[in-house]
Design goal:
With 154 residues, this protein is of the alpha+beta class. It has a domain of 107 residues: Immunoglobulin-like. It is 14% helix and 34% strand. The strands form two sheets. The chain has a five-stranded mixed β-sheet, with no helix packed on it. Strands 5-4-3-8 form a four-stranded antiparallel β-sheet, with no helix packed on it. It is elongated, with a radius of gyration of 21 Å. The chain starts with 22 loop residues before the first helix and ends with a strand.
Length: 154
């Protein structure tokens, strides 16, 4: 049934392939791809995987181009929050350069996840090769409201 309407490349310009007005909407074969595909990634939010490992949660976020010093992980009253700020070049440098296309940009993000009653002292984080990994141990007992910045290992 998917071959009923074969896809074709609507771009006729070899220098800018895929620049049709609605490439994802009409070429993907599914409207759900349009609404969930790269929309989150294009909005400046990093993609995150949260895995339940039984006695702890493992959270991984792809942060290409970021350095460890660009990223802050905090635990506050049941919420794990990841902040990041990344700057590629100075704006004055950009004005002096003659870009034909510029897709890399500076920006920041803020993601929060509710993880429940967790002892903030037991949370560990690492940042290696552009991937942030945070382990959040679970607990059965109620923990006091705490705020803690999580240090990141290499």
């Amino acid at each position: 049934m998917t071959n009923l309407f074969p896809r074709r490349n609507r771009s006729s310009n070899p220098f800018f392939p895929g620049n049709s007005l609605f490439p994802t909407l009409f070429d993907s074969g599914s409207l759900s791809d349009f609404f969930t595909g790269d929309l989150l990634n294009d909005s400046g939010f990093p993609r995150v995987d949260i895995e339940d490992k039984g006695d702890y949660y493992k959270i991984e976020a792809d942060l290409p181009g970021f350095q460890k010093d660009d990223v802050v992980v905090e635990f506050d009253n049941g919420y794990l929050t990841i902040h990041g700020k990344h700057e590629t070049t100075e704006e004055t440098e950009d004005k002096e350069r003659n870009f034909v296309r510029k897709e890399r940009s500076s920006g920041s993000f803020h993601r929060s996840f509710y993880v429940g009653d967790i002892n903030g002292d037991d949370i560990n984080g690492s940042f290696k090769n552009g991937v942030l990994t945070v382990t959040v141990p679970k607990t059965d007992k109620e923990t006091p409201d705490t705020t803690k910045r999580i240090s990141l290992d290499d």
